[in-house]
Amino acid sequence: MTDDIRQTLIERALAVRRWAYAPYSHYHVGAALLAASGRIYDGINVENAAYGSSICAERTALVKAVSEGERQFEALAVVTDNGGSPCGSCRQMLAEFGLDLRVLLLNGEGAVVRETTLRDLLPDAFTPASLT
Ligand code: THU
Questions:
Q1: Which fold has domain 3-115?
Q2: Å from CA of 82 to ligand 1 middle
Q3: pLDDT in tens, 53-109
Q4: Distances 99 to 1, 44, 56, 117, 127 between C-alpha atoms, Å
Q5: Which of 4, 43, 86, 115 could form a disulfide with 61 if both were Cys (CB 3.0 to 4.6 A apart)?
Q6: Which residue out of 58, 70, 74, 109 is catalytically annotated?
Q7: Rounded to the nearest whole angstrom, what is the distance from the C-alpha of residue 106 to the centroid of ligand 1?
Q8: Is 58 a catalytic residue?
Q9: Is the beta carbon of 70 within 6 A of some atom in ligand 1?
């Protein structure tokens, strides 16, 4: 990932966060996922009055991307107020497509508070290889 692409990825995650629909938690999340194709798919959390039906920003971005035919991903940027880390369900969904995913966690000011990989966030992951 070049510095330019990294910056674009971060800007997309920051920009999309304004559309987060979080009337219950008030925890607004923006995510941007860079596919191997070079395209970036962004997403926000979409909450629901039936709380359990809500979806996280990371999974919104992922399902948008996979729905467009993407299967390989290079990097994910996530923006929250406090630099929060992806939840377990998001880690698991992302792991389906590879553990080498680079993950950038940003706070509300746009500062990268942590840079890691999905492999580090989800040790001993259950992946498609686990089924063979
Ligand atoms: N949320 C995300 O969008 N991503 C995460 O990885 C953690 C949690 C959302 C879900 C819910 O709308 C709100 O943040 C509070 O949990």
A1: Cytidine Deaminase; domain 2 (3.40.140)
A2: 12
A3: 999 999 999 999 999 999 999 999 999 999 999 999 999 999 999 999 999 999 999
A4: 16, 22, 19, 7, 9
A5: 43
A6: 58
A7: 14
A8: yes
A9: no
Report the nearest-CA residue for atom 4 of ligand 1. 56
Domain limits, the chain: 3-115
Q: Residue 132 Cα, ligand 1 centroid: separation in angstroms?
A: 32
Residue 33: closest CA among 3, 4, 67, 57: 57
CB of 79 closer than 6 A to ligand 1?
no
To which residue do tokens 């860079």 refer?
Answer: 34
* C-alpha count within 13 angstroms, C-beta hemisphere, residue 85: 12
Structure tokens at 122: 């989800």
